[in-house]
Amino acid sequence: MKFARLILAIWLSANAMSNANAQSPRSTSPLDRVWLEPKRPTQSQSDWYPQAIEPLEGRIVEFDDKQLSIAEGQTKDKTIVAARRVLWIEPGEVSDGERRVIDAFENGDNRAVLADLAEVLKARPPVWRQQWLTMLGANSAKLSGRAKISLELVSQLDRRPLPAMVVAWAPIAWTPERSNDPTIQSSLARLQDPSPLTQLVAASWLLSSSHRNDALETIQTLATNEDRPSVMTLARCLLWTTASPPEVKANYQQWLDELETIPISLSVGPTVSLQRKLQAAGLSQAANALEWSLELTPVHPHPALMTNRVSP
Hints:
The chain is α+β, with helices and mostly antiparallel strands and about 300 residues long. It has a domain of about 45 residues. The protein is about 50% helix and about 10% strand. It contains 13 helices and five strands. The longest helix is centred in the N-terminal third of the chain and has 22 residues. The N terminus and C terminus are likely disordered. Keywords: Signal.
């Protein structure tokens, strides 16, 4: 029941977001648009009625791993919210170079993303946009067979704390994929990387290889790393992908409950992986509910949901 209410809340918010987009197209709006996870109810509040995703519009003053500060509308009064609540940002005014990178990524042109990224970053856009654009580049590098470059970009990014919204876009293999030998070698070299996020990405690419045990050991360690809550959360969820069908049947209700407690910004990848595991275990009803949530009410764009990300 709680999950159904969450779907309804996101559906209501998606309608509001669609209306806003129709009234003020992305290319002409000078303001940044932000969508926030609903505030969680207090003990005195009922959690039955769904709370809608909260939209904000203004100019982002600062966005880091702790908080987002935005000057709203014409008043320029600053609103500060916890970074974990930020689901998605649609930037207002961006440079022509940034727009080329964003459009190239959305069109699946990975080569163009990587060709333009370095020059765009030299222009020093706001730090949060540098982080986001670099993570786009990490995904494009992985999707175009440049695993070494992808891992290097993630490692560079993770040298400073990242907002959950950026961490969520790390090129983690949420569904099984066969890695070629260069990818395997690059991943093995990063299992001891100083960056926990890089370790997690590398380990995810090795789960379907002969180095599965090494990958699993790394993920299990990261799943207890309380110094990096976002990485710990994603590592715990990634462990679901390693479960056998009997283990899935025994634990799936607990995992669904866990899915409701993690920041929504981090939930898309785990939802994709859990949906596949439920389907493979014959739990069609639960799998269909997750599939509908992804297809009808996606929380935000996510590489795991993009079917056109295949060009070299």
